[in-house]
């Protein structure tokens, strides 16, 4: 089981979460619980560090950030003990989670679950700190935002668990964000492939790396509400029999996008390479890329989208390259990406035609387009994004049971 920060935000919620663990234990199941930092503690710790040093990063920041989860596991174990159940808490290092990579964004290298199994054999509920592990230097290192999801799925794989239950503040995975589309419907199940596309398109239900791990190790993931008896949504391997059937299962909206456009660059093969290599050198992620001829002879236009948080850095990185190419650079931050996710979309043109027809009918201009077998994405003005979501949700009939 994994409980997110909102699920353990105060003592009452911790007690309620502990009751779920105890119920499973009474059914004869061995229970491992991954716990996030309570409430907004992670953000509070980060803000505290920034007050000391606005550029804080690296080892010391990881040392600080990992303490939130340690508070969570101790309180959870105490809650279990107060209800008469044996329980023990383990940090990521104590649970045998070995990581590699840079501070703040480490990767799980392997898990040695011996200590966890030893505690389970004693009949205890084991609470493990999410979001962290120990690196080759013997230092605590964190796994990045959403890292507790990754911890839970990785532990489930290492322990060969039947399932991994993710308890959160939503009832499951919906056909669209219900805060944007009131008619959004909760899905009873979704494939790993579709869920990965949703996560990549902006849905924030689960961390994408945890989904990749679950898919690789075939760990069934059950996303459930910590506060509501809803049956939730199962994330499962794709049914081979349904793989060839085209369908749209959900929509995603990403408001955190910016668009960079390079105008009037020389229309030759190495122009785009010069620009994209500058972004690669700085570690700046790029999402959609489109190149087209310019109305001016011998010139071309290049547009790309990237997370807003990298926009200023990307503009600086491209400025000198644009000068050498005698091209101009334009940054637009008021854009959003709307995505249709499903199966067999590229092979069945009616799906893309419906997207374009629907947006045209609502006078919503499409600035960029990308397509794959599992996703159709378009970039629109951010002021039109929610209208686009509602119109597409209706056009694809996603509100129907």
What does this structure look like?
The protein has helices at about 10-25, 40-50, 60-65, 65-80, 115-120, 145-160, 190-200, 210-215, 270-280, 310-325, 350-360, 385-395; strands at about 1-5, 30-35, 85-90, 95-100, 105-110, 125-130, 130-135, 140, 165-170, 190, 220-225, 235, 245-265, 290-295, 300-305, 330-345, 370, 375-380. The chain is an alpha/beta fold and about 400 residues long. The mean pLDDT is about 95. Helix content is about 35%, strand content about 25%. It is globular, with a radius of gyration of 23 Å. The longest helix has 16 residues, at about 10-25.
Features:
401 residues; 8-stranded mixed β-sheet; 12 helices; 6-stranded antiparallel β-sheet; alpha/beta; 27% strand; VC0802-like; Carbamate kinase; globular
């Amino acid at each position: 089981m994994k409980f997110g920060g909102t699920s353990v935000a105060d003592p009452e919620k911790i007690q309620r979460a502990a009751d779920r663990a105890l119920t499973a234990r009474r059914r004869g199941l061995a229970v491992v619980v991954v716990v996030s930092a309570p409430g907004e503690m992670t953000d509070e710790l980060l803000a505290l560090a920034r007050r000391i040093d606005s550029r804080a990063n690296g080892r010391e920041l990881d040392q600080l950030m990992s303490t939130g989860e340690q508070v969570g596991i101790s309180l959870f174990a105490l809650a279990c003990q107060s209800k008469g159940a044996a329980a023990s808490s383990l940090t990521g290092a104590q649970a045998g989670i070995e990581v590699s990579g840079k501070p703040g964004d480490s990767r799980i290298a392997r898990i040695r679950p011996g200590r966890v199994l030893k505690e389970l054999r004693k009949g205890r509920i084991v609470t493990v700190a999410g979001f962290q592990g120990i690196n080759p230097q013997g230092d605590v290192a964190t796994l990045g935002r959403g890292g507790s999801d990754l911890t839970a799925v990785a532990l489930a794989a290492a322990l060969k668990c039947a399932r991994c239950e993710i308890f959160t503040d939503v009832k499951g995975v919906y056909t669209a964000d219900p805060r944007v589309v009131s008619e959004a419907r909760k899905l009873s199940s979704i494939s790993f492939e579709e869920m990965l596309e949703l996560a990549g398109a902006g849905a924030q239900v689960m961390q994408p790396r945890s989904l990749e791990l679950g898919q690789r190790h075939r760990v069934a993931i059950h996303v459930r509400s910590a506060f509501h008896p809803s049956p939730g949504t199962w994330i499962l391997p794709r049914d081979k029999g349904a793989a060839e059937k085209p369908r749209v299962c959900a929509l995603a909206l990403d408001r955190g996008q910016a668009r960079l456009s390079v105008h009037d660059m020389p229309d030759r093969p190495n122009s785009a390479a010069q620009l994209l290599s500058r972004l690669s050198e700085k570690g700046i992620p790029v999402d959609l890329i489109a190149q087209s001829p310019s109305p001016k002879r011998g010139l071309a236009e290049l547009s790309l989208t990237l997370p807003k948080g990298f926009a200023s850095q990307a503009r600086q990185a491209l400025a000198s390259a644009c000068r050498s190419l005698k091209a101009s650079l334009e940054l637009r931050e008021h854009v959003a990406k709307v995505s249709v996710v499903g199966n067999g979309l590229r092979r069945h043109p009616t799906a893309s035609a419906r997207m374009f027809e629907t947006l045209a009918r609502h006078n919503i201009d499409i600035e960029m387009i990308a397509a794959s077998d599992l996703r159709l994405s378009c970039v629109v003005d951010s002021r039109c994004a929610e209208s686009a979501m509602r119109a597409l949700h209706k056009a694809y009939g996603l509100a129907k049971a």
